[in-house]
UniProtKB/TrEMBL annotation:
Protein name: Pyridine nucleotide-disulfide oxidoreductase domain-containing protein 2
Function per UniProt: Probable oxidoreductase that may play a role as regulator of mitochondrial function.
Molecular function in Gene Ontology: oxidoreductase activity
Top-level taxon of origin: Bacteria
Lineage: Bacteria, Bacillati, Actinomycetota, Actinomycetes, Micrococcales
InterPro entries: Amino_oxidase, FAD/NAD-bd_sf
Domain Amine oxidase: 15-270
Subunit and partners: Interacts with COX5B; this interaction may contribute to localize PYROXD2 to the inner face of the inner mitochondrial membrane.
């Protein structure tokens, strides 16, 4: 049997980013994917029992990182014909009394609409949005080395990660750190006076599925909220998330790579012979397949990797737009449906205690806001999920409907059909989300930094064996950075390739 250069287990955005990077360096690459279709957490598929003409984003739907991540900036999705359309409202937070917090892409407009809190919002996000490149590079770095933390800035500006790069990253990094300390701790309530501003930022922090305030929540909120006011906004890919995946697969195939679907890897025997294997999987799956190749204490540390609380997904078919009380809410890429800051804190705390919240945190996205072509035959898809405890078997359709109905009376009347995937069933569709942990690892501050273990190299776990999924730095999201960092290390260590492959179309 021919010896391949590299095998990648899993075809999520990180697996494909690794495969593309390796193939671009001239390596022979094969990707093995368990599911019948390619793309992991970025698949867009029909759900025949719901609607014959529509397609649904099974996992990710909204993509600030598809234009901002250093990997995707180098890969250039727009240059490959992938439309990344950001509505002029990135996210919104409806409140009970007919008010709402609205995050426009335009920072000045957001500040104006926030009234009393306008200056405080501008003061927090003005500098972060202006320095989004450095902030993103730091957040998307390998969390271990100066070089790994600056490479993102380099690929966007064509400079090497030199002292100049370091100097330009220091001030934004310190500013981000100061904001993190403020928003991740007890002082988070001091900045804003109005519920609109407090709830608006808390809705973004809640993406981390963790008790609030917390550093993991604050890090998520500050990065995503800054990107809302930056160049590309909160983008929705035309046609769905799959457009990103299709562009990656095309590039991989054009450089000799192969993707095989329906190929679940159970054990090392299922792998074709190769010089390197990169796992776009959880540490648990990695250990099942390659555990006897990983030495202690690394193996023990990987075994202690913790999964977090969960999401239960609901896909709706609607006969028309959601009748939000505040009409601007319907123009947002994402609506955070959780009510006030205090309500969201209670909801996340309840989930952290292993219980279902009465008023759960719900995220909603209507892709037709940016991509009207997603509506067909008078109906449109609606993407939603609710935070629930890990492993919850509960069908959350009614809970999600109730939450939306609170802020959009008459929502039930536009619902034509729905399907729930409870958290407990999420891993049937993607084994990287055990118990419904869509972040592929608990979002504790420890695991945000020491992900997946505290070792100096978070990617290489044994000779020729790498982990490259969202369970490695920088963590969850469709950014391809775990795959890119891991592939760069594999190129250096297994193939002595020191130059960064050119990823441009
Ligand atoms: C409901 C939901 C909503 C989300 N919303 C967003 C969003 O709006 N924006 C955003 O940026 N992110 C979002 N995310 C997160 C994002 O989808 C993930 O963080 C991202 O896809 C992780 O990429 P990955 O390549 O590490 O893993 P995945 O995309 O999860 O891919 C892993 C792949 O590996 C395959 N695999 C696993 N084990 C094996 C095996 N043994 N053999 C063969 N194949 C295997 C899986 O089938 C899967 O295809 C969401 C996730 C979910 C579930």
């Amino acid at each position: 049997m021919t010896l391949l250069d590299a095998v990648v287990v899993g075809s999520g955005p990180n697996g494909l980013a690794a495969a593309v990077t390796l193939a671009r360096a001239g390596m022979g690459v094969r990707v093995l994917e368990a599911q019948p279709t390619v793309g992991g957490g970025a698949r867009t598929r029909p759900i025949p029992e719901l609607a014959s003409d529509l397609v649904f984003d099974l996992c990710s739907a909204v993509h600030p990182m598809a234009w901002a991540s250093p990997f995707f900036r180098a890969f250039d999705l727009p240059g490959r014909g992938v439309g990344l359309v950001a509505p002029d409202i990135a996210y919104a937070q409806p409140l009970d009394d007919g008010r709402a917090g609205i995050a426009f892409r335009d920072l000045a407009l957001t500040a104006d609409r926030l009234g009393h809190d306008g200056d405080a919002w501008r003061e927090l996000f003005g500098p972060l949005a202006a320095d989004w490149r450095q902030i993103t590079a730091l957040a998307m770095g390998d969390k271990r080395t100066v070089r790994g933390m600056l490479e993102g800035a380099r690929s966007s500006r064509g400079q090497s990660p030199t002292a100049g790069g370091l100097a330009s990253a220091v001030r934004p990094g310190l500013r981000f750190g100061a904001a993190l300390l403020e928003q991740g701790g007890p002082r988070w309530d001091r900045r804003f006076l109005t519920e609109e501003a407090k709830a608006l930022l808390t809705g973004v922090a809640a993406h981390a599925i963790t008790p609030l305030p917390s550093f993991a929540g604050a890090g998520t909120a500050l990065l995503l909220a800054a990107l809302a006011h930056a160049e590309g906004g909160w983008a929705i890919p035309v046609g769905g998330s799959q457009a990103i995946i299709n562009a990656m697969v095309s590039d991989l195939e054009a450089h000799g790579g192969v993707v095989e679907v329906g190929r679940r890897v159970e054990s090392w025997r299922d792998l074709p012979p190769s010089r390197a294997v990169l796992f776009d999987t959880t540490p648990r799956t990695l250990l099942r397949i390659a555990g006897d190749r990983i030495r202690s204490p690394r193996r023990g540390a990987l075994n202690r990797f913790r999964h977090g609380n969960a999401a239960a997904k609901v896909d709706f078919v609607l006969s028309g737009p959601i009748p939000w009380k505040v009409t601007d809410v319907g123009r947002a890429a994402t609506v955070h449906v959780g009510g006030t800051r205090a309500e969201m804190v209670v909801a996340e705390d309840t989930v952290a205690h292993g219980l279902h919240a009465d008023k759960p945190m719900v995220l909603v996205s209507d892709p037709t806001v940016a991509d009207p072509g997603r509506a067909r035959g008078g109906v449109r898809p609606l993407w939603a999920y609710a935070h629930v405890p890990a492993g919850s078997p509960q069908d959350v359709t009614e809970a999600v409907t109730r939450q939306i109905e609170r802020f959009a009376p008459g929502f039930r009347d536009v619902v034509v059909g729905s399907r729930c995937i409870p958290a407990a069933q999420m891993d049937r569709h993607n084994e990287n989300y055990p118990g419904g942990d869509i972040s592929a690892g608990a979002a504790t501050m420890w695991q945000m930094v020491a992900r997946p273990t505290l070792s100096p190299d978070p990617y290489q776990v044994a000779e020729g064996v790498y982990l490259c999924s969202a369970s490695t730095p920088p963590g969850p999201g469709v950014h391809g950075m775990g795959g890119w960092h891991a592939a760069r290390r594999a190129l250096l260590r297994e193939f002595d390739v020191r130059t960064v492959p050119d990823l441009r179309p």
